[in-house]
Specification:
Layout (H helix, E strand, L loop, with lengths): L4 E5 L5 H8 L8 H5 L12 E6 L2 E15 L2 E13 L8 H15 L4 E6 L2 H9 L3 E11 L9 E4 L8 H9 L2 E2 L18 E6 L2 E9 L9 E3 L8 H11 L4 E6 L5 H6 L5 E11 L10 E2 L4
Parallel strand pairs: 4-5, 8-14, 11-12
Antiparallel strand pairs: 1-2, 2-3, 3-4, 5-13, 6-12, 6-13, 7-9, 9-10, 10-11
């Protein structure tokens, strides 16, 4: 006898069933990260959509809120994560139904649209089916060092530096998308600041970047597009070349602010499988004139 698929939002007592579904998928950093999900102010029970069969979770999607500077004003968007359907229950429309349920929640909240990222071709097709368009695709390249390339300096991030980040974000967002401008959540804080560096002109902080040194997982390390709103991209690239002792991986995005400059230096920008996708609610969002930025 086949049990009916029940769709509803998260309720107290659901975590064990959800973890049984999500842990094998490899999407969770830890079980506790899911159990403590409501410590994030942007996560609500109604934004966690479930599909259940006979009390067993067979589908899950989690929606959060974020804010972006679009059309010259900060607007609320939904952000999608932890989309997963039991492999034995796929091709039954479960993921489509869950996404539609989540969109209804986002629209009820008055969000302007929904944004997500993925590196799976099957997922891209699913999201296109429910109204998403590819906003940008991640590109990777390698940057060679040049010790005398710039007078700007990259330094480690300290607690006293963090107050400069929101102002840099605001200026950057005026000509780039997407850029989180959410003042209710802190993007860079004392627990993750070691993964960022700040750019200085003399003693003035003029930008920052997500910056990982080489490791077993990333032998070349990785530097993400720096958030430097008021300096020419070529000068920013030169500052990175002056700071690195050996080749480093650089992550940018198709249509991004640094793409043309990196190409002019002879860098080969290879597309990865990672894409950022956007769905508008109501009037279509006009992105004319906006640069693209990798979602991070």
């Amino acid at each position: 006898m086949h049990h009916k698929i029940i769709y509803r939002h998260w309720q107290p007592g659901d975590d064990e069933a959800v973890l049984e579904l999500l842990v094998p998928s490899g999407q969770l950093s830890s079980e506790n990260s899911y159990r403590n999900k409501f410590r994030d102010w942007s996560v609500e029970a109604e934004g966690i959509c479930l599909a259940l069969v006979g009390g067993k979770a067979v589908g899950h999607v989690l929606g959060m809120s974020d804010s972006f500077l679009i059309e010259k004003k900060i607007q609320k968007f939904g952000r999608v994560g932890l989309v997963h359907v039991d492999p034995n229950m796929r091709r039954r429309g479960i993921a489509t139904h869950l996404m539609q349920q989540l969109h209804a929640y986002f629209e009820k909240k008055g969000y302007r649209g929904s944004i997500l990222d993925t590196d799976e071709e099957a997922a891209i097709r699913l999201y296109q089916k429910v109204g998403y368009q590819i906003l940008t695709r991640e590109l990777r390249t390698q940057l060679a060092p040049n010790p005398n390339a710039s007078q700007l300096t990259w330094t480690e991030t300290h607690l006293k530096n963090l107050s400069a980040f929101p102002q840099l974000d605001d200026r950057w967002a005026k000509h780039n998308f997407p850029m989180s401008c959410d003042r209710e959540g802190i993007k860079v804080h004392q627990y993750n600041m070691n993964g960022y560096r700040i750019l200085r002109r003399d003693q003035n902080i003029v930008g920052y970047a997500k910056w990982y040194e080489p490791s077993e997982y990333n032998p070349l390390g990785i530097i993400y597009d720096p958030i430097v709103p008021d300096i020419d991209p070529m000068e920013v690239i030169a500052s990175v070349q002056a700071a690195i002792p050996a080749q480093r991986a650089w992550q940018t995005a198709k249509g991004g602010r640094y793409e043309e400059s990196l190409c002019s230096l002879g860098c080969t920008l290879e597309p990865t499988t990672w894409v950022v996708m956007l769905s508008s609610f109501g009037q279509k969002i006009d992105l004319t004139g906006h640069h693209r930025a990798a979602w991070w």
